[in-house]
Amino acid sequence: MRWSDQVLLLIDRHRRLLLTALVLAYLLGFSGQWRPEPDSALYIALGRNLAAGKGYTFHDKPHRLAYPGLPFMLAGIDRISGEHAMFMSHVLILAMGLASLAMMYRLMSLHAGRAVAVMMTVGLGISYTFYRYCYELRSDMPFMLGVMMVLAGYEGILIESAGRRKKPLDWILLIVGLGLAIVTRPTMWALLAALLAAVVWGVIRGRFSKKLLLVPAVIALAAVSFIAADPRRGNAEAHRLGDYEDVVLESVSVPKLIANVSELLDPHASEALFGIDFGHAVRLGPISLQMIASVIALAAGLLVFRERSLWGLWFLLTALMMLVTLARDRYFLPVLPMMVYGWWTLIREINFRVPGRWGNLLFGALFLLGIVPNSAKVGWLIFEQRHPNVLTIVRDGRYESMYRVAEMIDAQVPRGSWVIAPKKFGRIFSALTGRNVTEPGDVKGNERSFAEYYLLEPAKFEPDSPLIQPLLYTIGPPLASVKGKYDDKPWTLRFVKAVEGTR
């Protein structure tokens, strides 16, 4: 018997133990502590402004960038939970992660049976790329859940059209999943396109029931409803969408495409699937081991074309979106189920094509390659999450003094005033203090508001900063200072005012 068959038998035999252990690993990693970073801080600030009745605003202005799904969720939690909102927001994200795993099980059990469903659920669950975003307040996991609901519902509808008993749950999953995906991330445009193309192609080829043509109607209704109700548009011209879409359409260029191809292959594709950077020490001429691993990871994602056209189209269009926008390992999260399943089918096929014990040994090595690096990084993340103060070990303690600095800003800076903070901290301190905290390179368009402001050192003005050169300002003495255990320099707050006659 081939080892891949034996693995499936073992997994099916011990399925309850494996799935229970998987859930426990997620509960063990939960702490309710915020892992600060700019994107999640933006969602938190938007949610609090919505909860306070200030509308979809950031820095006292209508916001046009972040998709509204997660901010509205956080606003609801803020109104219901009050001072426990941060903890309950993390509970929501974890619940969405576990629900995504449940959708993965349903999808694969419909498509390939129970043993493969358990295998793929555990495979996705121990992926570091998936695991880490169950504990971050970003839109990635809500979007992931929407995608998995769409895929699971669509699979059920397909099987129904082939003779399976009708289940309203499939249509509910498809419709609700589409709604959730559409309001959370811009990649939803790729999902809509993939779903529409898959349905039309299937109907043309006569493989699907014509009632699946209801799906394009649902897609069109969902897209039109979102565009009409999108709070990012505000009073903008009717032809404009949000900043995400506008920036993408305006910035597509050959140099950017070339740069994103490089990012995709080195190292994001391989890190997304294998959880490891293979580095550049091993090379075949100009081609590094890292690049080879990324090509294999991308090939694994494309292999699912053989199983479902929707899966292959979804993976392909997501990768193409990264080429024209930005390549990051986390952007592979919503197509990670396709990559995991593609990797399994690839190594299983190798197991059957390579004869004798060598086929088994090669399968075993590749199987462990998909498990060991991911599991090791998941284990380290659990250690971080269980730490009494996660801020002391995340990014070498960079954020350890964050809350004390926020208290300093809150005590010294009047509401409505502007604060210039170091890079990567503007949104974070905005979320923690409710003040308009920005960064030297992000004040363009607000210059008239900076006749006076507060400077949070060690903020530094970049050469291309749109602010008037600091020499034209009078910088006051320190108002307050904070130095944490891991800070190289103290955080110092100063009042800055433009010199008379320079504005």
Please describe what this structure looks like.
59% of the residues lie in helices and 8% in strands. The radius of gyration is 25 Å and the shape is globular. It contains 19 helices and nine strands. Strands 6-5-7-9-8 form a five-stranded mixed sheet. By secondary structure, the chain is an alpha/beta fold. Helix 4 crosses helix 5 and helix 14 (289-302) crosses helix 16. Strand 8 and strand 9 (491-498) form a beta hairpin. The chain starts with a helix and ends in a 5-residue tail after the last strand. It folds into two domains: 3-384, no CATH class; 397-498, no CATH class. The model has no long low-confidence stretch (mean pLDDT 86).
Indicate the radius of gyration in whole angstroms.
Answer: 25 Å
Mean pLDDT score, rounded?
A: 86
Low-confidence stretches: none
Shape: globular
Number of helices: 19
Order of helices and strands: HHHEEHHHHHHHHHHEEHHHHHEHEEEE
Largest sheet: 5 strands, mixed
As laid out across the biggest beta sheet, the strand order is: 6-5-7-9-8
Question: How many structural domains are formed by the residues?
Answer: 2
Helix-strand category? alpha/beta
Strand content: 5-15%
Counting DSSP E segments of at least 2 residues, the number of strands comes to: 9
Indicate the percent of residues in helices.
55-70%
Give the CA-CA distance, first to last residue: 81 Å
